[in-house]
Request: fold
Amino acid sequence: MKQTLKTLLVVVTLCLVTPQIASATTYPDRMGTKLGNGMANIVTGIVEIPKAVINGNRKNGAAYAATGGVMTGMVHMMGRTLLGAADLVTFMIPTKPIITPEYVWQNFKQDTGYKGTWELLP
Reply:
C-alpha cells in the first residue's frame, strides 16, 4: 500500500511539474526538461499496456486487444522505459524526444511512435 502511494505521489508530482518544464528555453532548462522527461517515461512506461489494449479494442475489437494489444503494449512499455533511461543518462545533451507522444498521458488515443534519429535542440 505504501509503495502504491509513493508511486502515485511521484506521478502526480510529475504531472504538475510537466507544464513548467515544457516551456524551457535556456540550456539548463532544456537539461531539466530532458531529465524530467526521462524520469516520467521510466515511471509511466507501464501505462503503455492498457493504452495499447484500449486503442486496439477501439480500432480492431476485443480479440485483437486481448492478444495483439497486450503484446504491442509490452513492446511500447519497454521502448518508453528504455528511452526514458537513455534520457536520464544523457540529460546533459538536450535532444528532441524520440518517442511520440512525448508523455504517455498526452493524446492517449494516439498510438505510440518513434522517430529514427536523435536531433539536438537549438
